[in-house]
Amino acid sequence: MAKILMKGNEAIGEGAVRAGCRYFFGYPITPQSELPHYLAKRLPEVGGLYLQAESEVASINMVFGAAGAGARVMTSSSGPGISLMQEGISYLAGAELPCVIVNMIRGGPGLGNIAPAQSDYFQATRGGGHGDYRVLVLAPASVQEIIDLMKDAFDLADKYRNPVMLIGDGVLGQMMEPVELDEEVKPVVLPEKSWAATGRMGRDKKNLINSLYIVPENCEAHNLELARKYGTMAEKEQRWEDYHTEGAELVLVAFGTAARVCKAVVDMFREEGRPVGLLRPITLWPFPAKRVAALAGTARHFLTVEMSMGQMVEDVRLAVNGRRPVYFYGRAGGMIPVARDVYREAGKILTGGADS
Amino acid sequence: MFEAILIAGFGGQGVLSTGQLLAQAGMEEGRHVAWIPSYGPEMRGGTANCGVTISSRPISSPVVSEPTVLIAMNRPSLEKFEHSVVQGGIIFVNSSLIDIRAGRKDVRVFYVPANELAEELGSGKVANNVILGALIELTGVVTPGAVEKSLREVLPPHHHKMIPLNLKALEVGAGLVRGDGPAAAGAG
Amino acid sequence: MKKVFTRPKSLKDMPFHYCPGCTHGIVHRLVAEVIDEMGIFDRTIAVAPVGCSVFCYDYFDCDAYQASHGRAPAVATGIKRVLPDRVVFTYQGDGDLAAIGTGEIVHAAARGEKFTVIFINNAIYAMTGGQMAPTTLLGQVTTTTPYGRNREINGCPVRMSEMLAVLDGSAYIARVSVHDPANVARAKRAVRKAFEVQMAGLGFTMVEVLSSCPTNWGLSPLKALKWLEENMIPYYPLGEYKVSGDTTPLFRHDSGADGGLSKNDPAEVG
Ligand SMILES: Cc1ncc(C[n+]2csc(CCOP(=O)(O)OP(=O)(O)O)c2C)c(N)n1
Ligand code: SF4
Ligand SMILES: [Mg+2]
């Protein structure tokens, strides 16, 4: 194992290469550009292909083709480009194709700016495209976790034959942190994909990559089948990190960069001996509702902290289900919460002076 | 220990790589480190800066909005960031390129003619390292040994012949702070 | 003393954010001068792209829109259909116009939409950090073609003026450059012609301007202009590719330009 300094965006690329991904289709956008720059160099070194598409609409459909052909494939963008991909993501989900989509979220709506944000939470977790579908969403909070989760992202995509989205923001993408990496790239054994449409090549059954079910009864059956799959994902794949939640009277809930800030806030309270903890969702969909519900039995209040005007807070409220007050603190438009401000908000709640 | 260091200057002054060198040295010493550059359209204006956090504890936000140390390599950087330094913090002013004084009275300010000292050593390219040497001597944020090791990591092999010059620059900077160097840093 | 260099009225009095030596500023000035000289400032509407020139919505003092990446021709279509007596222009980069917005530009031209496109071809995605553009030359190193643009992987650069000139809806298409004063003067005349053809209601108009990006090309401003002249012009010949109405040719026959002639409406090109 070597310990090296790596940029978050580059770690996504190296993580993908080590997960056996050999195909990247994408279109430039800030703040994720270091990822395509990295893969444009790196993929040819391992016999892979980096292809710059003419748009995100094209990128996601190139992913559709490559995933249907059985490859481990990914794309990456930020808000405006991810919005353009929504039609394609819906088709990928409908045709049950595995792939990884990275969204390094920036300030919105519209052209917004290129500063870090978390305001694409709804888009990611509710399915920004049309139809009844779900995408598994992973939210790393450090460069090391990016590397680790990239491998999981591809494995989960294959396991469920479903798109997986990894979301970060400009801070995670631009920052350098130490990461532990194996000295060599180990070969990855990819799962058999007997459903891939690769040309029959002697196969006795035809394979079809499709999301059209023209007969309503059939389309409903397809939706029921998908819903069963999403049910399994929701049951089995919830992930989170507990940070001093045991005995916490106030539980902060935050992911990604906002969670890093909240850890510092928890430390400030714990040093004063005050019972504050942090629940950090690692999967945003499925949201770790189980854990939040359990904590609602012990904690007295929740404070959701986001780099948006309040999106995940709705999932926290659903999971708490009215048993405890759920407060919200957020910064938007590319601003990052400052530990001191969150500390002050949390302090008000602890002493009973805040409105939920 | 906790230091949040903001290094700012023109694009091309090497502030980003100086920050990386510092972060790498912190990592060599087993500290938690994070490095983050400024990014975005302001790059067009030709300024560049990066934040380096070195800490004995995990780092929350890597964005350095309240530096404990500011290294200002040019005048716009001093003007822009002086106010953000924490009380009791440190400002290094590259007095080769900055002809004004810092206004803050509640921080320690060191004026280092970094470009001139670097030229005397044989290359203006090591100006940043003169200041880095002063910073290390003053704060002990990393050891000179860790910086030496890190130079080997961050510099591409064909530049390794530059390492002795870089080390000399660090030593000159350290000497300024100790007061036994060629020219003591004007503190004010 | 005669003032030779004043700010056109159509440009706001504020500093550009462009890098030193960037030709976006020159082209802004040309467009603004034409608007001033034609006296159409009050009824001109600008549509800004997403690219380095996105802030042109601020620089041009006329009413303006900021379109999503590549969609300026669709936005301009909506504006012009509602306000047919206004003068509408889009200002777009090569990534904006020739990659993500190819569908919009082709169909605006095919429909003969009566607005003007100022197309800045700098062979790079400048704003996002120097990635390959559809117009990047073969062999050109960019941040996403670290080994040089390769025909096998990336295909060949796209010549938009030639492509759009063959559509029946286009009325005026010219490719100009701003690498020296003579060409700057000619570029201005092309912009004026395009606006005139738009106002005569003859159809779609576009002026492609070969431009430099010293920052992402990694060259000094002067070397960048030289690189443009020596590398871009041979691949992107200057000339008028489509001319409608009664106008004097922009290029003389000996100008060295050998722009393609569109079959249905032969233009005066050298
Ligand atoms: C949907 C979408 N995808 C990507 C981007 C990121 N983006 C901003 S500008 C740009 C390209 C700019 O290149 P060009 O159009 O050639 O203009 P230039 O900066 O070179 O003048 C891109 C890809 C975006 N804003 N929206
Ligand atoms: S990056 Fe290039 S196109 Fe953009 S402002 Fe600078 S020189 Fe001009
Ligand atoms: Mg361009």
Q: What's the overall average pLDDT of chain C, rounded?
A: 92
Order of helices and strands of chain A: EHEHEHEHEHEHEHEHEEHEEHEHEH
How much helix, percentage-wise, in residues of chain A? 40-55%
Kindly give the count of domains of chain C.
1
Q: Can you count the helices of chain A?
A: 12
Spatial gap, N to C terminus of chain C = 39 Å
> CATH H-level name of the largest domain in chain A... which superfamily?
Thiamin diphosphate (ThDP)-binding fold, Pyr/PP domains
Classified by CATH, the class of the largest domain in chain A is: Alpha Beta
Average pLDDT number of chain A? 97
Computed CA radius of gyration of chain A, to the nearest angstrom = 21 Å
CATH topology of chain C: Rossmann fold
| Share of β-strand residues of chain A | 15-25%
Give a short account of the largest sheet of chain C.
Answer: 7 strands, mixed
Beta-strand content estimate of chain C: 15-25%
Structural class of chain A: alpha/beta
Bulk shape of chain C: globular
The CATH class label of chain C is: Alpha Beta
Task: Draw up the topology in text.
The complex is a heterotrimer of chains A (356), B (188) and C (270).
Chain A: E1 2-7, H1 8-18, E2 23-26, H2 34-45, E3 49-52, H3 56-68, E4 73-77, H4 79-94, E5 99-105, H5 121-126, E6 136-138, H6 143-160, E7 163-169, H7 170-174, E8 176-181, H8 216-236, E9 240-243, E10 250-253, H9 256-271, E11 276-281, E12 283-285, H10 289-296, E13 301-306, H11 312-320, E14 326-330, H12 339-350
Parallel strand pairs in A: 2-3, 2-4, 4-5, 5-7, 6-7, 10-11, 10-13, 13-14
Antiparallel strand pairs in A: 1-8, 6-12, 9-11
Helix pairs in contact in A: 1-2, 1-6, 3-4, 9-12, 10-11
Chain B: E1 2-10, H1 15-28, E2 32-37, E3 47-55, E4 69-72, H2 75-81, E5 90-94, E6 108-112, H3 114-121, H4 127-139, H5 144-154, H6 163-178, E7 186-187
Parallel strand pairs in B: 1-4, 4-5, 5-6
Antiparallel strand pairs in B: 1-3, 2-3, 6-7
Chain C: H1 24-38, E1 44-48, H2 56-59, E2 63-66, H3 72-82, E3 87-93, H4 94-100, H5 102-111, E4 116-121, H6 151-154, H7 160-165, E5 170-177, H8 181-199, E6 204-210, H9 214-217, H10 221-235, E7 239-242
Parallel strand pairs in C: 1-2, 1-3, 3-4, 4-6, 5-6
Antiparallel strand pairs in C: 5-7
Helix pairs in contact in C: 1-8, 4-5
Thiamine diphosphate sits between chains C (50-53, 69, 93-96, 120, 122, 124-128, 133) and A (27-29, 56, 80-81, 84).
